[in-house]
């Protein structure tokens, strides 16, 4: 079979991908970096223990974000991201999963002073993982055993973080008791 009669020559060319979504992402990253830089202006630059001031990291992150945003916009102007693979997954977002994850974050923020850091973060983890499990179509997502494992995993992740901050770094986080261990 010669090149003229190959299958690729017989198929119509693929429609080019629109570039505006890439431009929106680039502009969003650039504006996020600019907003962070605007906020960093109000942070003191007086050098601390390490020789850098508290505004060093916000400035560093804002500059890197603005460089990334400018790079994305340059890529869009020169033809967009090349050799992009087709995105896996569904064509539309799974809104129920978004609700699960959002509920976890909002309940964490609302209950952290009531339940303490460990339990509120474990609840956040539980709800977020439930949203991700359901988005992936896992049949066992609703099983009581899965909920128990996810809650236990959330505790096993958040407890060492709590202890690291409260016991070793002496940073106060809300606890369930006044002992500093729960």
From TrEMBL:
Domain of life where this protein originates: Bacteria
DUF1468 domain location: 25-174
This protein's UniProt keywords: Membrane, Transmembrane, Transmembrane helix
Annotated TM spans: 20-44, 56-74, 94-127, 147-171
Pfam families associated with the record: TctB
Designated name of the protein: Tripartite tricarboxylate transporter TctB family protein
UniProt organism field: Variovorax dokdonensis
């Amino acid at each position: 079979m010669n090149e003229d009669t190959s299958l690729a020559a017989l198929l119509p060319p693929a429609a080019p991908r629109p570039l505006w979504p890439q431009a929106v992402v680039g502009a969003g990253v650039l504006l996020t970096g600019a907003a962070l830089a605007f906020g960093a202006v109000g942070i003191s630059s007086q050098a601390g223990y390490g020789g850098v001031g508290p505004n060093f990291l916000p400035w560093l992150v804002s500059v890197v974000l603005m460089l990334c945003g400018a790079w994305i916009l340059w890529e869009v102007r020169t033809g967009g991201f090349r050799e992009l693979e087709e995105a896996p997954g569904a064509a539309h977002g799974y809104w129920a999963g978004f609700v699960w994850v959002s509920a976890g974050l909002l309940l964490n923020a609302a209950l952290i002073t009531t339940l303490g850091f460990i339990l509120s973060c474990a609840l956040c983890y539980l709800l977020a993982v439930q949203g991700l499990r359901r988005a992936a179509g896992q049949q066992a997502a609703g099983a009581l055993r899965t909920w128990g494992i996810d809650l236990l995993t959330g505790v096993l992740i958040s407890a060492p973080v709590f202890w690291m901050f409260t016991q070793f770094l002496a940073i106060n986080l809300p606890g369930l008791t006044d002992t500093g261990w729960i």
